[in-house]
Amino acid sequence: MAELFGGLLWHGGIVFLRVAALVSVLPAFGERAVPVRVRLAMAVAFTAIVAPAVPPATPPGDILGYGGLALLESAIGLGLGISIRLFILALQTGGTIAAQSTSLSQILGAANADPSPAMGHLLVMGGLALAVMTGLHVRAAEFLLLSYDLFPIGLRPDAQAVSAWGLSRVAEAFSLAFLLAAPFVIASFIYNLALGVINRAMPQLMVAFVGAPAITWGGMVLLLVAAPVLLGVWIREMHAFFGSGGGLLP
């Protein structure tokens, strides 16, 4: 019995390290607004799902081996979790660009745990709700299981390949952010161009007093119309990310 439960405890513990690191930064489940006890319970639940499907590994022979393996598994889990977390960064960055373009960046800028304009906060909350409703927990469990095929327990990933993958993920996140903010940037460009033409035609008119309410109202109306489409694009990109194994599959 001691040998049986000792082996199960070792296996569950080493799987828990990778799972807990990923869950700590996973969108929706790893938010700072979620209590630590709840996040710990979710990490244990994910471990109970993932551990039975992971091949058992041989325990290290000394304490240094245990420490190195714990650091390696935690680093792998954290890296995988950050690659998913970048989708939230894309929403926050896109919302910030959109708010700056439409003069709404100072409205409710610090009303949440991660200070951001109200436009970005609205997109993030909508994105988190949409992700959970479309099975984020299932996709995360599948992604964890795939990670053990790509990075078995105790196998150190190639640093150059991981670096290239990380850079590509960051580039894709910022590309997605600019894509989401594109309607607001285009509308702002047209607004400023029209304002410049009016100012040249009638220099005595205070165009700023006329244009400021227009761009604010226009930005809010554009957000109302474009937000469902933008969130649809965002969730499709997230599902494509999970479908491709996070870009790790050859």
TrEMBL record:
Gene Ontology CC terms: plasma membrane
Transmembrane segment boundaries: 6-26, 38-57, 63-88, 173-194, 206-235
Lineage: superkingdom: Bacteria
Subcellular location: Cell membrane
Membrane topology according to the record: Multi-pass membrane protein
Cited Pfam families: Bac_export_1
InterPro entries recorded: T3SS_IM_R (IPR002010)
Keywords: Cell membrane, Cell projection, Cilium, Flagellum, Membrane, Transmembrane, Transmembrane helix
Keyword Iron assigned: no
GO BP of this protein: protein targeting
Family designation: Belongs to the FliR/MopE/SpaR family.
Database matches in PANTHER family: FLAGELLAR BIOSYNTHETIC PROTEIN FLIR (PTHR30065:SF8)
Name of the protein described by the UniProt record: Flagellar biosynthesis protein FliR
